[in-house]
Amino acid sequence: MRVFNFSAGPAALPEEVLRQAADEMLDWHGSGMSVMEMSHRGREFMSIHEEALTDVRDLLQAPASHRVLFLQGGGLGENAIVPMNMLGKRDVADFVVTGSWSQKSFKEAAKYCKPHLAASGETANGFTRAPKRSEWQLSDDPAYVHLCTNETIHGVETFDIPELGDVPLVADVSSHVLSRPLDVAKYGVMYGGAQKNIGMAGLTIVVVREDLLDRALSICPSAFEWRIVAENNSMYNTPPTYAIYIAGLVFKWLKRQGGLKEIEARNLEKSKLLYETIDASSFFSNKVERESRSRMNVPFFLADESRNDDFLAGAKERGLMQLKGHKSVGGMRASIYNAVPLEGVKALVEYMKDFERTRA
Ligand SMILES: *Cc1c(COP(=O)(O)O)cnc(C)c1O
């Protein structure tokens, strides 16, 4: 029996995708082998790779100015790979810190440059808001401005993406990429690990504006130098082939669902139902400012924290899994990525209401 999986990552995948992968496990399209066993430069895998790149460009509506790269190293790897690729002759980069992930990006960048804290979303209640552009205090000539557009742990999403003129915006989109249309043209760079909303761990996606490919520092490892990866069509070294294949199946699934507009409508419905349930209750609460509430990751707290273990045990009995909040924040967190169906959220809110009624 499949459960409803609210894990923050690695996270739920569409059942159709898992079934197709299972069907094709031993013999992909008459090749007599698994995708895992193929040469990455052979005709079969090349077709999988090209189709995945075409489909993700299509879903993202990526303009011709931007390259889509398949890399490895995850979101945290990019915290080093971004400065090594983006600093050029500059030694300052600006950071808008809205939660744990952008805080990590800020800290790691200090190994390569002088990071400048342009704005912080930290309040007396922790990270609960995305500072507006008018609050950002940019330095004079930063190499780029870094932003995490969805903070997975704190549940803070940035909806208002400003125009920064000549300064490239670099965004960690790990946990909300493909959850709704994003205007790729506004970003110099977007990056994200695949294991939240795209597919399985092992693949990292980087979308980079072509004119930014000449800024890499000489210390940047060749396998992570975006210009080299781009020139080799993400085949400079062996790419994470099976993770690319799974991502490709997810891209096809998204297209069958009607693309990102349709997915956004579903994600809105799911998140609205959950936040409305929390707000209507005196037992559950969410601390994030309304306009910054993430549609993908919903942290919430019980009024009586001594009931946390009860709540989780009861959820498990109903097949509602991985609801425990991140240890740095506590409480609960429901991650409701694309692959978590509306029925899963309905089952969760029914359970929350029952719990409040019978045991609160
Ligand atoms: C999960 C996550 C990361 C870390 O990704 P890894 O692949 O584990 O390195 C970074 N940023 C965000 C926003 C995340 O959600």
Automatic annotation (TrEMBL):
<dbReference type="InterPro" id="IPR015421">
    <property type="entry name" value="PyrdxlP-dep_Trfase_major"/>
</dbReference>
<feature type="binding site">
    <location>
        <position position="152"/>
    </location>
    <ligand>
        <name>pyridoxal 5'-phosphate</name>
    </ligand>
</feature>
<dbReference type="InterPro" id="IPR015424">
    <property type="entry name" value="PyrdxlP-dep_Trfase"/>
</dbReference>
<keyword id="KW-0718">Serine biosynthesis</keyword>
<comment type="subunit">
    <text>Homodimer.</text>
</comment>
<feature type="binding site">
    <location>
        <position position="172"/>
    </location>
    <ligand>
        <name>pyridoxal 5'-phosphate</name>
    </ligand>
</feature>
<keyword id="KW-0032">Aminotransferase</keyword>
<dbReference type="GO" id="GO:0030170">
    <property type="term" value="F:pyridoxal phosphate binding"/>
</dbReference>
<keyword id="KW-0963">Cytoplasm</keyword>
<dbReference type="GO" id="GO:0008615">
    <property type="term" value="P:pyridoxine biosynthetic process"/>
</dbReference>
<dbReference type="GO" id="GO:0005737">
    <property type="term" value="C:cytoplasm"/>
</dbReference>
<keyword id="KW-0808">Transferase</keyword>
<keyword id="KW-0663">Pyridoxal phosphate</keyword>
<feature type="binding site">
    <location>
        <position position="101"/>
    </location>
    <ligand>
        <name>pyridoxal 5'-phosphate</name>
    </ligand>
</feature>
<dbReference type="InterPro" id="IPR022278">
    <property type="entry name" value="Pser_aminoTfrase"/>
</dbReference>
<dbReference type="InterPro" id="IPR020578">
    <property type="entry name" value="Aminotrans_V_PyrdxlP_BS"/>
</dbReference>
<feature type="domain" description="Aminotransferase class V">
    <location>
        <begin position="3"/>
        <end position="348"/>
    </location>
</feature>
<feature type="binding site">
    <location>
        <position position="41"/>
    </location>
    <ligand>
        <name>L-glutamate</name>
    </ligand>
</feature>
<dbReference type="GO" id="GO:0004648">
    <property type="term" value="F:O-phospho-L-serine:2-oxoglutarate aminotransferase activity"/>
</dbReference>
<feature type="binding site">
    <location>
        <position position="195"/>
    </location>
    <ligand>
        <name>pyridoxal 5'-phosphate</name>
    </ligand>
</feature>
<dbReference type="InterPro" id="IPR015422">
    <property type="entry name" value="PyrdxlP-dep_Trfase_small"/>
</dbReference>
<protein>
    <recommendedName>
        <fullName>Phosphoserine aminotransferase</fullName>
        <ecNumber>2.6.1.52</ecNumber>
    </recommendedName>
</protein>
<keyword id="KW-0028">Amino-acid biosynthesis</keyword>
<dbReference type="Pfam" id="PF00266">
    <property type="entry name" value="Aminotran_5"/>
</dbReference>
<feature type="modified residue" description="N6-(pyridoxal phosphate)lysine">
    <location>
        <position position="196"/>
    </location>
</feature>
<dbReference type="InterPro" id="IPR000192">
    <property type="entry name" value="Aminotrans_V_dom"/>
</dbReference>
<keyword id="KW-0664">Pyridoxine biosynthesis</keyword>
<comment type="similarity">
    <text>Belongs to the class-V pyridoxal-phosphate-dependent aminotransferase family. SerC subfamily.</text>
</comment>
<feature type="binding site">
    <location>
        <begin position="237"/>
        <end position="238"/>
    </location>
    <ligand>
        <name>pyridoxal 5'-phosphate</name>
    </ligand>
</feature>
<comment type="function">
    <text>Catalyzes the reversible conversion of 3-phosphohydroxypyruvate to phosphoserine and of 3-hydroxy-2-oxo-4-phosphonooxybutanoate to phosphohydroxythreonine.</text>
</comment>
<comment type="pathway">
    <text>Cofactor biosynthesis; pyridoxine 5'-phosphate biosynthesis; pyridoxine 5'-phosphate from D-erythrose 4-phosphate: step 3/5.</text>
</comment>
<comment type="pathway">
    <text>Amino-acid biosynthesis; L-serine biosynthesis; L-serine from 3-phospho-D-glycerate: step 2/3.</text>
</comment>
<dbReference type="GO" id="GO:0006564">
    <property type="term" value="P:L-serine biosynthetic process"/>
</dbReference>
